[in-house]
Amino acid sequence: MAETATSWAPRSAWAGVVQAGQIGVAGAAGVTATLLDGFGLATLIAAPGGTLALSQLVESRIGITLPTTPKIVPGASHDAIWSGPDQWLLRASTREGFGSLLEALSAQAAVSDQSDARAAMRLTGPRVRDILAKGVMLDLHPSTFVVGDTALTSIAHIGVHLWRLADGPDGSVFEIMVARSMVGSFWSWFAASAAEFGCQVSIDRSTGRG
Amino acid sequence: MSTQPFRLASGGLIDRGQQLDFSFDGTSYRGYAGDTLASALLANGVRLVGRSFKYHRPRGVLTAGPEEPNALVELRSGARREPNTRATVVELFGGLTAASQNRWPSLAFDLLSINGLVSPALVAGFYYKTFMWPASFWEKLYEPLIRRAAGLGRAAGAEDPDHYEKAFAFCDLLVIGGGPAGLAAALAAGRSGARVILCDEDFRLGGRLLAEKREIDGKPASEWLAATLAELESLPEVRIMPRTTVFGLYDHGIFGAVERVADHLPQPPAHQPRQRGWRIHAKRAILASGALERPIVFAGNDRPGVMLAGAVRSYVNRHGVLPGRETVLFTAGDDGWRTARDIAAAGGKVAAIVDSRPADPARKALADKLGARLFASGAVMGARGGRQLSGVTIRDASGAMSELSCDLLAVSNGWNPTLHLTSHQNGKPAWDDGLQCFVPGTVPAGLAVAGSAAGRFTLAQALEDGATLGNEAAVEAGLAARPAEPTPTTDPETNGLSPVWRVSGGKGKAFVDYQNDVTDKDVELAAREGFRPVEHLKRYTTLGMATDQGKTSNLSGLAIMAEQTAKTIPQTGTTTFRPPYTPVAIGALAGHHRGRGFRPIRLAPTHDWSKEQGAVFVEAGPWLRAQYYPKPGETDWLTTVNREVKAVRASVGLCDVSTLGKIDIQGADAAEFLERVYINGWKALPVGKARYGLMLREDGFVMDDGTTSRLGETHFLMTTTTANAGKVMQHLEFCHQVLWPELDVRMVSVSEQWAQVAIAGPKARETLRDVIDPEYDISNEAFPYLAARPVTVGGGIPARLFRISFSGELAYELAVPADYGDAMVRALMQAGAPFGITPYGTEALGVMRIEKGHVAGNELNGQTTARDLGLGRMMSSKKDFVGRLMAGRQALVEQDRPSFVGFKPVDPSQRLRAGAHFIGIGKPGVMENDEGYMTSVAYSPHLNHWMGLGLIRGGANRIGERVRAYDPVRNGDVVVEICSPVFVDPEGARLHG
Amino acid sequence: MRITCPHCGARDAQEFSYLGAADLQRPEGMAASEAAMADYVYQRDNPAGLHRELWYHGAGCHAWLVVTRDTRNHAITAVEPAKTRKAGAAA
Predict the structure, then answer these.
(1) Which domains does chain C have, with CATH numbers?
(2) Residue B635 CA neighbour count, 13 Å, CB half
(3) Pick from B837, B841, B782, B768: which is nearest to B807 by CA?
(4) Using CB atoms and an 8 Å cut-off, which of residues 52-71 of chain B contact chain A?
(5) Do A137 and C12 touch (CB under 8 A)?
(6) What is d(CA B100, CA B906) in angstroms, rounded to the nearest whole number?
(7) Residue B35, pLDDT score
(8) What is the pLDDT of residues B177-188, one digit of tens each?
(9) ipTM tops 0.90
(10) By CB distance 3.0 to 4.6 Å, which of A27, A177, B639, B831 could disulfide with A161?
(11) Which residues of A touch C (CB under 8 A)?
(12) What is the reported pLDDT for B103?
């Protein structure tokens, strides 16, 4: 009913779990965590033998190529993230127009909207690798896990998808995505692991909703 | 406060400017930063630190390292109390409290020391022989008695207040041990740019260099040490980890290590863990763990004041403590002489040197210089003293006995390489006859052994091995080879040795294994009674089985057994070691995974709303689900659940079902794929419809069930049970990738994307009408039972509506993107308010499905077939599917196989219990009369009595018969009548309303 | 243990689930015999040495892999995706 429409407010996966502010030791934070919200996300799976056709379609629509190894290919408005053989996550910075893009891509792919399925977080700061080393069973050394590398792996028995997005003034920028239902347990691990270095938590509301 | 009477006036690597007060058994003492608890106790003249395991004999400090068998104490108090900590490795901190163990009523006066007098009852095998019969005595009498008499420290008995964590590291080279060999290795590899991790269990790096007076390149070794550490710290890819014990080597180059982050502090600083358990992945590793000194077995060798000679040097040179006023040295080699020399240099008195080897002019001259009597070809026959050593009996070359008084007996018998990690991957140590010790034999790939750990005992060899192997590791890790640098030179050293395994003929007990109170007589007894193989020896005598795992005792035990059986040591056996090298706290292995963090918990998008409603939650697989929603005034769960069930059947209720597994299945062959994994047909299912499906394992038993909807010609949405979601996904991936990769089927879990709520009850449609956008017709005609179609809510939010029912009522499931889950449930509550909409939890859900005879997890228990559950007719005979052939096996289709029916108590006031077994009335409750069991029970507020579902032989053919529901564990014995499993609305009229 | 997933790279064994022998052929179709299926479901060799076996990279890319492992020392000599060949073990 029209009069109830105003109450249909979306609720972030992080809501009720995390608040902005400093956690752990006070003072200069060893890491900054930015909670991401409002992005669009979908699984694309190519048909058998259809990877090239899908890749061409994606490129024609949003100008990025689909990686065939565990990489993230970032674009102006969309990122393509490898998530298995012939399978990708497509991330849009906004949900506006995402539905129609997915509609178009479904010509060449099995498309499943996952926009609400993951909680995502961006991490940067001098101690980011020290925190990740408490859960990630992978070598994240700068020379081994280079910019653009991604991994589907687990932290504290929780499945995660993480990548080294870029290198910035505060060092490497990592992003981590975790299943929405697990975000409370994930944060429990993260907060305990980050506490000794101090962590500044902020919430990025810059991305809009469609 | 004491004056530290045994502290030297100067010297040592302690910070005399930093005094630390601590207490032991309630008495206050003072030590310095840089002390261990053992060195501080010795400085204060505390000799007696514990009582032995079986005989309660007074014991003192034997060693200065992790191998310590005697000086075990309870450290800290309250919830942080930790038993069996070795005083020799406990880093002293201000405010430390420690207590001795295994004494009653006090350390100095221990009533149970009479165990020593009744010791014949406590010899090898005493458990097996003495306490064998009758068996019932064991639990009530023997075990409590033994536990009081023999034992170690007490656990805290309270929850550990500290935090622990895990961490993972990767490197080109792991160097285990920070002595001269390890430092040289780390330096060589580090200089070439390799990623190096250097771990040392001590709080200070340097290994034996800290305990010895040595020279490197013509200067005190401390200068080389300082320069090396400074350079290592300057290398960005070298990580130095003190206070870190590498305790195990596992498959594929993975090492376990524990970092004692805050054990040296009264309590961890805020936000710091107490300990951190590391898993280190190393391309190469160098074991530079040094060596452990060996005691000699002679009568009274456990008197407080008998100490290993190398340990004495540690206390003198590192800690500035001279642990005795008058020293006798009993040595089998050159190394012991260093102790005499260093004691004399520190101003101590060496009364006598007993060297087991024949007379030698050089040694005579040195003894004269030290002012010590020399007994060549001599032996210490016995040590005297109660709580403290008072003197020794020495036999000289002629066999004559001398009595000497002394308060410190330093014992030197050579060293055993600390090769433990080399045998963690099935490596076998090898006996070196020249060195008279075991050295690494077969060594795991990727591991190299340097210095003393390899039996290369001189400082020069340690430095040379480290540099060579460190360079090799760097090259193997792919770094450029570097030109060889000259190995540092050292002051000369000799290592002559003729080991003495034991001195026979003395009076009193001679200990092989101090911690487990195993004597040479116990080993002889084992030999006489035929327990000769080393594994038998160990189990019969408990030699090597204590917390120190025989670090000071294994070789002596072997040697005595060899002597008894006229064999050589290598013929007798080898010592193999398993992880952990030293004890590891469970907390360090568990890390974050304790208490609420034991395993990840999944929460539904409506969780916070349910919490607001006061829901009680229950674990369902990995999820927390609302179990019921008590209202004020409801004092027991059954009242609440009855209200919830009645509200649904009378009007409308809602229940979160987001936890069900949801798998998006697309592709040209999606329908064909479902045909193969489900027992029933799917190709004819129209778009926009849902169907119940059942899948089997290949062995014919039921795996899971759920509804699957056809969203498009080549697009299905499968739901699974909450508990099996992951397992089903894995199974489907198996079927696709392994069995039928030629099919075009593409699957992904969308469980997390959708929040889903069941709306059930006669007013369900009216409630939904206000929530679904008006352009969608959801009338019974337009949206009949099993319709499954996309709709929108809230003015255009994409949603999915399914008309499916678990409760038997008119019911729907509405799914929205998870961000809108919270809004959806609030909108439904608002829309249903005029009908008194009632949230219900898994209990009410369970009651209603039992009332309807629907199977659930209790019935899909891995032991039931589709036929057992009354679903045999679903099995298509026109197609092959997983489990088809095995489900048809004779034993699975026999007529009297227990099958699914309902049960009701003949006396309606009686309660039923799941798990009860069915027994014929009048028959005894024994296995032979077992006819099946009750799988699920609930109280039906509509029938006003308990009802049950279960499996019974003959099943549906026995409707109306009565049997016993027999439950001896809970004293249950109820006469029940077999009935249809559908208790409410058997015609299904409500469903289609 | 570490297993090198051909898609994801070297990973801890904790990320994988083990199933068993890889080179079994499911008897397909309505003509398959119960005896052949029983063999497929239950009969297994237990070699001391090289063993081709199925592992599922559940915490990673969800690929089923054929891992060649020496059962005596866990040395892994080959890992390949199961999807590229037509053979399978019972679920």
Answers:
(1) 2-84 (3.30.2270.10)
(2) 0
(3) B841
(4) none
(5) yes
(6) 65
(7) 98
(8) 999 999 999 999
(9) yes
(10) A177
(11) 70, 83-85, 87, 137-138, 151-154, 159
(12) 75
3-state secondary structure of B144: helix
- For chain A, what is the radius of gyration of the CA atoms? 18
Count of CB atoms situated within 10 Å of the CB of B655: 29
List the structure tokens of A143: 């020379």
Q: Which residue has the tokens 């009969």?
A: C43
CA distance A131 to B339: 47
Other Cβ atoms closer than 10 A to B586? 10
DSSP 8-class letter at B772: B
Does the distance separating the beta carbons of C90 and B699 come in below 8 Å? Answer: yes
CB contact under 8 A, B742 and C86: yes
Contact (Cβ atoms closer than 8 angstroms) between residue B442 and residue B339: no
Alpha helices for A73-153 (secondary structure H)? 98-105, 128-132
Give the span between the Cα atoms of B222 and B206, in whole angstroms.
9
Displacement of CA B19 from its chain's centroid (Å): 38
- Measured between alpha carbons, how far is B991 from B853 in angstroms, rounded to an integer? 14
Q: What is the pLDDT of residue B122?
A: 65
Contact present, B648 and B840 (Cβ < 8 Å): yes
What are the φ/ψ torsions at residue B991 (nearest 5 degrees)?
A: -60, -40
Q: In this predicted structure, what is the pLDDT of residue B596?
A: 84
> Can you state the angle between helices B534-541 and B554-564, rounded to 10 degrees?
110
Q: Is B792 helix (H, G, I), strand (E, B) or coil?
A: strand
Backbone angles phi, psi at A14, to 5 degrees: -85, -15
Q: Can you list the domains of chain A with their CATH numbers?
A: 21-37+117-204 (3.30.1360.120), 40-113 (3.30.70.1520)
How many helices (H) and strands (E) would you count in chain B?
A: 24, 50
B189: CB partners within 8 A, 6+ apart = B172, B173, B175, B196, B470, B471, B473, B474, B477
Q: Is the peptide bond before B632 cis (omega within 30 degrees of 0)?
A: no
B645: amino acid identity, one letter = V
Residue B296's nearest CA partner among B409, B408, B404, B375 is B409
Q: Does B831 touch chain A (CB under 8 A)?
A: yes
DSSP A35-74: EE-S-EEEEEEEPTT-HHHHHHHHHHHHS-PPPSSSBEEE
Residues B358-395: tens digit of each pLDDT: 999 999 999 999 999 999 999 999 999 989 999 999 99
* Six token digits for residue B70: 């005697």
Query: Alpha-carbon distance B443 to B161, whole Å?
Result: 40
CB atoms within 10 A of CB B297: 25
Q: Residue A166 corresponds to which tokens in the numbers above?
A: 């870029």
For residue range B812-849, list pLDDT tens digits in order.
999 999 999 999 999 999 999 999 999 999 999 999 99
Closest Cα partner for B41 from B72, B81, B79? Answer: B72
Q: Are B966 and B972 in contact (CB under 8 A)?
A: yes
**What pLDDT was estimated at residue B574?**
85
User: What is the C-alpha separation between B982 and B859, in angstroms, rounded?
Assistant: 15
Chain B contacts of A181, Cβ < 8 Å?
602-605, 623, 751-752
* Residue C9 with chain A: CB contacts under 8 Å: 70, 151
The confidence band for B115, taking pLDDT boundaries of 50, 70 and 90, is: low
Which among A74, A84, A161 has a CA at the least distance from the CA of A120? A161
Bridge partners (DSSP) of residue B383 are B392
For residues B605 and B818, what is the distance between their CA atoms, to the nearest angstrom?
6
Residue of A nearest to C12 (CA): A137
Question: For the segment B739-780, what is each residue's pLDDT rounded down to a tens digit?
Answer: 999 999 999 999 999 999 999 999 999 999 999 999 999 999
Chains touching chain C, criterion 3+ CB pairs below 8 Å: A, B
* CA of B741 vs chain C CAs: smallest distance (Å): 6
B592, B668, B820: residue with CB nearest A192: B592
| Residues with Cβ within 8 Å of residue C23, at least 6 apart in sequence | C52, C87
Q: Which two tokens stand for residue B967?
A: 């439950």
